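Onboarding guide, step 5: your first structure request.
Type a short instruction followed by the sequence, for example:

Predict the 3D structure of this protein.
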Amino acid sequence: MPHFPFQRLQADLAKLIASLPAGARLPSEPDLAKQLGVSRATLREAMRMFEAQGLLRRRQGAGTFIVGQLPVMESGLEVLESIQTLARRLNLDVSMGNVSVEKLPAGADAAEALDLAVGSPLLRVSRVMSADSRPVAYLVDILPADVLQPEELSGQFEGSVLDYLLHRGDPLTVSRADITASNATADVAKMLEIQRGDVLLQLTAKLFTASGRVVDYSFSYFIPGYFKFHVVRKVGRA
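The system replies with structure tokens like these:
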């Protein structure tokens, strides 16, 4: 049995979560903190671990709920694949919701990433991806306006810009991605139905064609408990 207070709290929470069915609502934070003999701040910190694992889901104004654990979507980062491809391999039902397609001028960051002039026309595609009706990822792709037009996405787009471009026959070759942990902004938290400041896994990527042109600058935010990424590396020689 854990001997440190915080570990005991996590163990008590784990027992409580395991004892309740999916969909059950936990007591309010004040009541649960009193029941467990801790402060609300300490309780909230301990609960974040279970949220990251996908065992708890907090909804603003509604409370904290038990969720059934989904199979983890696991992939090596050596090969770029869409969430849909990962889901098909696991026989999971993944769907797109809350999609936004908008034209906008390139700001400084996007212009630099896409090697364009500031103010160049861009297309921004933002959407939430859900598994088993739960939001698990928020994806944002920014593309030069000559690469993709809004009308192309009507009726055929299922959520993956990568899959759409590949199906169209674009000569895509490599993607360079930066992997970080980030705290959910207010906008991202709203889309994923989590709390502002919750930790997310973030991939910021550029997608290149055979000629070396960057045709997609993307931001992908994943709820950690539902995804597991790994890298296979060769051993270097001294």
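Each response can be followed by summary notes, for example: The helical segments are 5-19, 29-36, 40-52, 83-90, 108-114, 161-168, 186-192.
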